[in-house]
Amino acid sequence: MSIDPAYEMVIGLEVHAQMLTQSKIFCGCSTAFGAPANTQICPVCSGFPGVLPVLNKEAVNMAIKTGLAIEGEVRMQSEFSRKNYFYPDLPSGYQITQFELPIVEHGKVLIEDKDVPAKVVGITRIHMEVDAGKSIHEGVVGGTWVDLNRTGVPLMEIVSEPDMSTPEEAGAYLKKLRSIVRYLEVCDGNMEQGSFRCDANVSVRKKGDPKLGTRCELKNLNSIRNVMRAIELEAERHIDILEEGGSIVQETRLYDANLNETRSMRSKEDAHDYRYFPEPDLPLLVLSEQQIATVKATLPELPDAKRERFETAYGLSHYDASVLTTSRALSRYYETVVEQVKAGGQNDPKICANWVTVELLALLNKENKEIEQSPVSATNLAKMVVRILDNTISGKIAKEVFASMFESGSDPDTIIEEKGLKQITDSGAIEAAIDKVLALNSTQVEQYRGGQEKLFGFFIGQVMKATQGKANPAELNKLLKQKLGG
Amino acid sequence: MNELTLREAADKLATKEISSVELTQACLDQIAKHNPTINAFVTVDAEKALAAAQAADARIAAGNGAPLTGIPIAHKDIFNTTDMRTTCSSRMLENFIPPFDATITTHLRQAGAVILGKTNLDEFAMGSSTETSYFGASRNPWDTQRTPGGSSGGSSAAIAANMAICATGTDTGGSIRQPASLTNLTGLKPTYGRCSRYGIIAFASSLDQAGPMTRTAEDAAMLLNVMVSYDPKDSTSIQSPAPDFTQALTGDVKGLKIGIAAEYFGDGLNDEVRAAIETAQQQYQAMGAELVPISLPNSGYAIPTYYIISPAECSSNLARYDGVKFGYRCEEPKDIRDLYFRSRSEGFGDEVKRRIMLGTYVLSSGYYDAYYRKAQQARRLIADEFKAAFEKVDLILTPTSPTTAFKFGEKDDPVQMYLSDIYTINVNLAGLPGISVPCGFDSKGLPIGMQLIGRPLDEETLLRSADAYQRQTDWHKRRVHLG
Ligand SMILES: [Zn+2]
Fold first, then answer.
1. Which residues pair with B228 in a beta bridge?
2. Which positions fall inside the Asn/Gln amidotransferase domain (chain A) (predicted)?
3. pLDDT tens digits for chain B (483 residues)?
4. Testing the interface with A: which of B90, B200, B324 to mutate, by most A Cβ within 10 A?
């Protein structure tokens, strides 16, 4: 993607990450997804008269955990506020959120991707807040239904600095952030189901101009691809307006993925006045060093650290190590393969990495599956790698075995056995096959011996064909050279 | 029988001299006879009350009685009850039956108290006379042309009219103490956070506090024993061991330092009230307490501070009454905006609307710093000033209300009405405990109350001082006879 080179984009992202707590942030109701409407509610989350909020410690710990992972400052005293507005799916008429004193400030995230050079993006703040309910219009005649199951589910709002200047950087940032929250197991990172939502603030300015342009906020971005497309579109729209001598109106815009356009939702003039004030039903949230230390002790190895370890411990390329550490499950899968190969008496982390990053991920991508849903288990992939390394099958045959494993989920040995794919390493059998080929192609043998050495490949191909690809390539090479030379 | 104090009634129930059914019936008879004029109760459930009384008698007979078992009590209609509507005296909640009990309601049920019904209040507790109630004002049994005070005026009228032995109230700016003062009762506002707010319909969350309304300080101690608790459902509830408050009533105030602040005896104070308070001061001196002059100049900011913070919180707390989920909904709304507008216009009364608008204004962007933030700073100053004062004195004695009970319609200017709470509001802003105790009558035969203010969590000193005074005086024993 590219825009008029005279301009540059200034992009900041606000991510709402739904925290993976068992219960809601201010009551004991379950947060499980997909239950029938209004079955996971109580007087507290449905805002009945007389109710009071009680803060869920698990949510606090998850926010602290995320704060530590992005090297942010965790506030020893943070504060909840009320954000007041009327909406049918906001039962109490206000949302409890953190305003002046959020739990985390000043963090940072290192981004890099295929086309994105390494860059640090600042995190302004992380604050906790409650999710609202859902209005249902579909299938309702003459009104609207409200489902409050999601009301009170804890969210973390992660606000970045306007540090990104291309849609690719925004995409890389989201991928990285999603990978971090998944590593921490504080959010499932699912954008389609709305548990990882993003709003983008976009403005443009002439390159070198120190002054920020007027920004617009983009909403309804439900995939990383859409975030990138919407930013691009929005920047182009701004540049077109500026080039025609117009000026940008600060507003909130909706991205329509079907039409691939952004359109005005509300302008600054009709923006809400949220009348924030400190939530009187909740005291200051005071943390202890002890609590922070306890959370710190539960921090897993994070993607950056893991990538470095993969590079040094397994001798992987920066790129392979990055791919393998994009998710905790993927890195766990990879490490299991490496360990099981070792247990099988072999050792080759690089081949393992190739099979995972190239073959497996390609097939998973094609079927839109996550590593957790891989039909090929790490144990089975390791068994197959062992069979390659111990010369039972060739690399080429392995592709066939692998495809079959992916389809059936079976053990590689069973497949090799059933399909008779075992490599022929027996020199007698290979010799017999060579003799047969040479006898059938006497003309080519003459030509080879007359100096046309290119024909060597032809003979290899013929023998492979005759052995259905099972001849051990090294052995075949050696024997064929002997025979042709003889 | 229905004129008994809580202590007397409990003793007679324990010795089976009377039964709870008899006592409850006596209260119900009085209600049947006089509630049509006094209008203390919004809801009475005689059947449930008698059933509860029967259960209490059985409990006492089985030897399982507690001090409150079988005592007829009235709940301010702001405490959630699952078996009786909770209206807040608003059209908005006219038919609202909550799905859960307030924590205090639960405690009192468990203690065996018999709930007679729910008492009238100013709509959503906003007012000082019960005149803002959707169900009409309650009348002061001492003079039915006058208010019983507010907002817990239904509770004070119920006890003063001998319809209940005791009652619960809530106090946001003086709503327990002022009506207690105007009807010759003892009314205690505990330290903020002492009693759970869970299940009390919120007016101004950072100021609301539940407390007992009774005939004597001893009764207040008995009721407080059951009302005070740490409640994990209320994050602002204080985790502090609750003593047996009746144990504090030693009758001894020797050596106690009582602060007298000149700021509480200024121009607005009625002469007869002033004289009664001064006599009470002398009585304390005679009992061995020491009067210490103190100064609380920031008290002057109390009214403006309160009328910024409490409407701000109320504007937010009352946003849930939008016609969507429960309570009043307008007829045939055109769309969601129409539903909001008309449900709220038709469901709320003028005073509630006034405060919602005031609160919306002081919180709106551009005004927050000028009003709300300043008010919070003033609140801090007021609290600090009290803290400094309590380094010199053990409690502070002031009038409760600048006047005795006033006539209906007498204070038609809202600001005039707001000034009725001038001596009580500071206590809420600072989160301190305060008690109002009967200390005389004016020439019209209307009761006068004095207020004692204590250190945080020191309800014991307040109750001890109030009880010691009541051992020396008879004001609290005067009863109205409605005939
Ligand atoms: Zn709930």
1. B195
2. 332-484
3. 899 999 999 999 999 999 999 999 999 999 999 999 999 999 999 999 999 999 999 999 999 999 999 999 999 999 999 999 999 999 999 999 999 999 999 999 999 999 999 999 999 999 999 999 999 999 999 999 999 999 999 999 999 999 999 999 999 999 999 999 999 999 999 999 999 999 999 999 999 999 999 999 999 999 999 999 999 999 999 998 889 999 999 999 999 999 999 999 988 899 999 999 999 999 999 999 999 999 999 988 999 999 999 999 999 999 999 999 889 999 999 999 999 999 999 999 999 999 999 999 999 988 999 999 999 999 999 999 999 999 999 999 999 999 999 999 888 788 777 788 899 999 999 999 999 999 999 999 999 999 999 999 999 999 999 999 999 999 999 999 887
4. B324
In A, minimum Cα distance to B88 occurs at A49
Choosing from B76, B118, B189, B411, which is the catalytic residue? B76
A50/B93 Cβ within 8 A: no
Q: Which pairing describes strands A216-221 and A251-256: parallel, antiparallel, or unpaired?
A: parallel
The answer to whether B463 and B220 have CB atoms below 8 angstroms apart is: yes
- Has B76 been annotated as catalytic? yes
Among A45, A48, A85, A146, the strongest candidate for a mutation testing the B interface, having the largest count of B CBs within 10 A, is A48
- Please name the member of B201, B235, B326 whose beta carbon is closest to the beta carbon of A53: B235
- Range A427-485 classified under CATH 1.10.10.410: yes
Q: Single out the catalytic residue among B19, B175, B401, B436.
A: B175
Please state, in angstroms and rounded to a whole number, the distance separating the CA atoms of residues B282 and B272. Answer: 16
A24 Cα to the center of ligand 1, angstroms: 7
- Chain A hits for B233, CB-CB cut-off 8 Å, are 52, 54
* C-alpha to C-alpha distance for A44 and A153, rounded to whole angstroms: 12
Indicate the pTM of the whole model: 0.89
Give me the residues paired with residue B143 across strands. B140
Sign of the dihedral through C-alpha A262, A264, A265, A271: positive
Chain A residues touching residue B367 (CB < 8 angstroms): none
Q: Which two tokens stand for residue A175?
A: 């991928």
- Distance, in Å, from the CA atom of A282 to the CA atom of B53, rounded to the nearest integer, reads 38
Given 3-state DSSP classes, what are the helix, strand and coil percentages for chain B, each rounded to the nearest 5?
A: 45, 15, 45
Mind telling me how many Å the CA of B450 is from chain A's nearest CA? 30
CA distances B303 to A160, B180, B205, B437, Å, are: 43, 20, 17, 23
Which residue type does A150 have?
R
Region of residue B66 (left: phi > 0; alpha: psi -120 to 50; beta: else) = beta
Helix and strand tally (H, E) in chain B? 15, 11
Give the integer Cα–Cα distance in Å for B154 and B117.
Answer: 11
Task: Tell me the ipTM for this assembly.
Answer: 0.95
- Tracing tokens 């051992």 back to the chain, one arrives at B471
Strands (E), B371-431: 395-399
Q: How far is the CA of B325 from the centre of ligand 1 (A)?
A: 15
Task: Give the residue extent of every domain in chain A.
Answer: 7-292, 301-419, 427-485
For an interface test with B, the pick among A26, A38, A52 (most B C-beta atoms closer than 10 Å) comes out as A52
A-chain residue closest to B320, CA distance = A92
